[in-house]
Request: fold
Amino acid sequence: MNGTFLPLVEDFFSIQGEGFHTGKAAYLIRLGGCDVGCSWCDTRFSWDPEHFPMVKTDAIIDRAIRSGTDSVLVTGGEPLMWNLGYLCSGLKSKYIKTFIETSGAYQLSGKWDWICLSPKTNMPPVSEICNKADELKVIIENRNDFEWAEEYRRKVSKKCRLFLQPEWSRFESVIPEIIVYVKQNPDWRISLQVHKYMHIP
Reply:
């Protein structure tokens, strides 16, 4: 597929709610399709791409441009299931920065100003994406996830920003452990899903 059509779940201008760019305005493009299958996923509705029509990528690009944004965040689902080269080229031709959040389970396509890698144990990232990641964001559901986080800390570059994020439904039980861990391992920072506190998409 050449990326001129994409299975669009939703697109809208909002505020980034997680990770390094928390609080920054960005146009969000959520694509359908994901076979990573995290048990705690809060966007399960996006998993089956057949539920979402293939939309002209040019139309998505035009809406992003008209929003007045200076950056676009592409997420999913797992966005790298699709060829994103055409999307990135169209946005960059209008000097819009391109950000992606991905599990890294598929080969990278498109040109990105910021890559947030959020690796999942049930479908680990392909090796080539690790040294390209600008941000490593690991979801913490239980203590074993700290070991997973450290495994990928060793695979990303030294310039990569490191974040631990509590799994939303287990926030109360895991946040005390994350706080202790970050105090003991200060290269890590805590990411919170602040968009849920602000009641925005």
